[in-house]
Design goal:
Blueprint lengths: L8 E9 H13 L4 E6 L14 E9 L7 H9 L6 E5 L1 H9 L5 E3 L3 E5 L11 E5 L11 H13 L7 E5 L5 H9 L3 E6 L2 H13 L6 E5 L10 E7 L2 H6 L1 H6 L1 E13 L3 H6 L4 E9 L2 E8 L3
Parallel strand pairs: 6-7, 8-9, 8-11, 9-10, 11-12
Antiparallel strand pairs: 1-3, 1-4, 2-3, 5-6, 12-14, 13-14
Helix pairs in contact: 1-2, 4-5
The structure holds S-adenosylmethionine (SAM).
Length: about 300
Amino acid sequence: MTEVRDPDWIEARLLAVREQVDAVEEALLAAAASVVTVTGVDDEPNFQPGRVWGQNLVSGLFAADAVPGDLEERLAAALSTRLPLEWVPVEGLDWAHAWKAHFHAFPAGQRLWVRPSWVEATKPEGRVELVLDPGMAFGTGQHGTTRLCLEWLDACIDPAQAPEVLDYGCGSGILAIAAAKLGASRVLAVDNEAQALEATRANAAANGVEDNIEVAFVPGGLAGRGPFPRVVANILSQTLIELADDINAQLAPGGELALSGILKGHADRVREAFPAIHWTGQVDDGEWVRLDGTREGG
Ligand SMILES: C[S@@+](CC[C@H](N)C(=O)[O-])C[C@H]1O[C@@H](n2cnc3c(N)ncnc32)[C@H](O)[C@@H]1O
């Protein structure tokens, strides 16, 4: 893919106990951190879904020109307590290698195998491989919310039906590419970040599915599109609530919806924002959840 020039980066670091980790992570992502990593205080990386240590070092990486000045207040509001926050400048190139070391290849659902482009690993027989380079966009699949969505796509895309899929908030394009590789006839991948669209185009080409995936800015890119029989959106709770009408309008009657990026405590508020959806299930990964539903009618 085209390399995006690394800006200088600043890392926000704080120590959090197990119960605080997901809320801290959500607050960092909502403040537009490019990457959030959680490690045990002994610097052991967090590879297992849902695994969190008693004491954790949580770090959020911000481009030096996009540091949220109110991060301490946001964290205090999310946690109802103040935690000491440390800001650590990181040189771009060193950082690029440091964070890449935390990623690994993994299976998702029954049919997928996800491999970051810089990792060498043999694909297990019978699985389809996705090779991802997120660039500056979210989404190598390491995050529990992405894995939950990959599992949903694996379960609800039947190549015999070849449904069309909308990936709302595509990031690196991981879900759109998974949908195409699992047998979707056509995928629309949308985001409001230029870097995400660039990463999705590049990753789609690297995976040989660029002809099946259309990439577009939102909200403009949705005009005259849809409705889709499958819609997946892995965005944070508050954004999902704000986008509820747009997302709902893109789901065909009888169509299936998966929403993720939601902390357990916010699930009811998200469900309430989608009154036309009949909710069929909730799948958890630690404190993060995926909500499954179908649109009435059809
Ligand atoms: C948590 S990332 C998910 C990326 C990828 N789909 C995945 O599952 O790993 C959320 C994505 O939603 C995008 N996003 C946030 N607010 C949005 C909005 N209002 N409209 C469209 N996309 C949005 C972000 O730019 C980001 O790429």
